[in-house]
Structures are given as C-alpha cells and as structure tokens.
Write a structure and sequence with these properties.
Bound molecules: zinc ion
Shape: globular
Order of helices and strands: HHHHHHEEEHHHHHHH
Strand content: under 5%
Radius of gyration: 22 Å
Length: 346
C-alpha cells in the first residue's frame, strides 16, 4: 500500500469514534484491502462513473469509498485522491487521474485539464457534485462518459435527447451518491425528463453538441452549417467562451445569466448555448449585436488564452461589435495595446 495512503487511512480511523469504528469493521470490508471484485474501464468513462460502478459491484456505496479515502462527508472525489482510490479499486492511478477534471496551472494561474483539453475557465466544466447523463446511453452501455462533464454538452449526439441532471420521478438533482449507475437515490431508474425534446439533425444545438463530441474525441472536425467554421481556429476553451459571451444575455441590454458552476444546470447551459449559436449565425449576416453580447467575456478571452488564435478572434470580435474605443476601452486600456492580426473569418 502506498505510504501516503496508509497515512490517510490512519488519519481516517483516528477520527472515527471507537464504537462506530467497531460497528463499521464488523459490517463492511476493511479499507486496508482492495475491493475484491475488480471491474475494467469503459471507453471514455469518467472517474466518478468508474468508482460508482466499482463500489456498487462490491455491494458498497460511494460514501464507503469516500470514508476509506479520507474524503469529508459529501465532498467530491478528486484527482488528488487517485493514488488511494486506484489502490482500493485495483486500477492504474494515472488511468484514474486522467478520467478526472484535474487541476493544473497555466502561466501561474489555475486551470483544469480534462479529456486532454486545457480549460482556463471553470465555468466550462460542471460541478462534480451535479452530474448529468443520457439515460438512453447509460441503459445501453452501463456507464457515464467523461465528456458529459463539459457544461456545453447538453444533448446526446447519439440519441438526440437532452442530457438529464435531475430525476423525473422525485424531482431532485442527480448525484453520484446513488445505488447504481442508472438509478436515482430515490431507488427508481433515471429516465428522460417529461418534457423531453428530440433534437433534429438540422438544429443548431444538436450540430454544436456533435461538433464538440467530435473535437473531444480527437476526431476530424466535421463541418456543420449551424457551427461557424472559424470556431475551428480556436481552442475548445475559446469556443466555450465565445458561445457563452454571445448567449449569456437573455435579451438586448439584459443582465447576463449567472453561469457560475454552482448555479449551472443542464437547462440553463442549454439556453445559453442556443442563444449563443443563434446570435453567431446572425453575426455572419452582419447584424448589430452589441447590445446582446457580453463584452466582458470577450475581454476575458482576449486577455487570457493559451492560443494566439483565441486572443486574435476575441479582439477582432470586440472591435467589430463595439468599435475601437468606447466599451472596449472602458473595460481595459491594456487591450488596446493588442494589435490583432488581420482576420478574414467570413
Ligand atoms: Zn445517448
Ligand atoms: Zn429520484
């Protein structure tokens, strides 16, 4: 057993009252041994899905695993817990770490690496405490995919249905602490929501989700009429940020929707994406969108990106929508020092 794991197990046992520790030792397997039933990974599976399947196959709960790993009650299991979690489930710790949204640093600032993508803004990734899934995929394959943790994935590219982040039976948000991968904590199967929409292949939203899924799978970028071709120049971090900048305001001059990770639901994220895609389509028709776009999000991308194209496109959009002075200047004088290359996107 790795030494850091032993230390954490000792810490956990020390925290337990003696009587509770005795009861647990009589009723549950000891956490000083790996789980007896070992499962294998499925393609593109998320860490939380793997851990939930591993514990339920052993007739245990994620709460047990969290206790065994020394994670506080109700807390999320994280990439930093991988050494002990991998040991408990008899898997490779690097394989497990890759299936988490792992904290990273970019230019000294916090970032997240997930599915091989560097993401600078936490709003692009859903809270680990608020999972979403496609009930039809889960029914067919028996696991949850890592790409479902990206906030802009709101439609299943395979089944064309909305991702689901709450239980249609009990109305509560889905959580990872549930009896089985396809079952809500109310003990009923997780199904499609009652107001289920099936998205046609012509819809901007399905095309955008399929485009993202292809990019996240590292496949060639297919052309979709509903997705501006110039988004291909950008990192996915840049794509998410631009769609959000265009979609966050419900209407002209309206206050932008709160899309912080804590508040983000599938429905809210989907509304932002639909508006963002519709406005991007209108941009190509040369419409004035200055009252509908959230300029602060574009400024953020212009100032902080890890790909020159992201900065260039954000700066170009700012000058096209808001002119070279005015709003842009008020936001950040330093932005005016950026000299965007001549971009010919349309
Ligand atoms: Zn599906
Ligand atoms: Zn339920």
């Amino acid at each position: 057993m790795p030494s850091e794991c032993l230390f954490r197990l000792r810490t956990w046992r020390w925290r337990l009252p003696a009587s509770l520790g005795l009861i647990m030792s009589l009723t549950t397997p000891t956490s000083s041994e790996p789980l007896p039933v070992v499962i294998s990974w499925r393609q593109g599976e998320s860490a939380a899905s793997y851990l939930l399947r591993a514990t339920s196959r052993n007739q245990l709960s994620l709460a047990w695993l969290r206790h065994a790993a020394g994670v506080p009650e109700g807390g999320a299991l994280r990439a930093s817990d991988s050494p002990l979690l991998a040991w408990l489930t008899s898997t490779d710790k690097h394989r497990l770490m890759d299936a988490f949204a792992a904290p990273g640093r970019w230019n000294g600032r916090p970032s997240v690496v997930m599915n091989g993508q560097t993401i600078l803004r936490s709003t692009a990734i859903r809270s680990t405490l608020k999972p979403q899934l496609c009930p039809l995929c889960v029914r067919e394959t028996g696991y949850c995919q890592l790409i479902w943790e990206f906030a802009h994935i709101t439609v299943c590219p395979v089944h064309h249905v909305n991702m689901v982040d709450f239980c249609a039976q009990c109305g509560r948000s889905l959580v990872w602490d549930r009896p089985a991968i396809d079952m809500c904590r109310c003990m009923r199967l997780i199904g499609l929501s009652n107001s289920q929409n099936v998205w046609a292949p012509e819809s901007l939203l399905w095309q955008y989700n399929t485009y993202l899924a292809n990019r996240l799978a590292g496949e060639g970028i297919w052309k979709w009429p509903g997705v501006p071709a110039w988004l291909d120049f950008l990192s996915l971090d840049g794509v998410f940020q631009i769609v959000r900048a265009f979609g966050a305001r419900p209407g002209p001059f309206a206050k932008p929707m709160d899309h912080s990770t804590r508040k983000l639901t599938t429905a809210r994220s989907q509304q932002i994406c639909i508006r963002g895609l519709e406005r991007l389509a209108r941009l190509e028709l040369d419409r004035d969108l200055s009252s509908e776009v959230q300029e602060g999000e574009l400024v953020s991308l212009a100032k902080r990106s890890f790909r020159a194209n992201d900065t260039d496109v954000a700066t170009w959009l700012l000058s096209r929508l808001f002119g070279s002075g005015g709003v842009v200047k008020a936001f950040t004088p330093s932005l005016m020092a950026i000299n965007p290359r001549q971009l010919d996107l349309f």
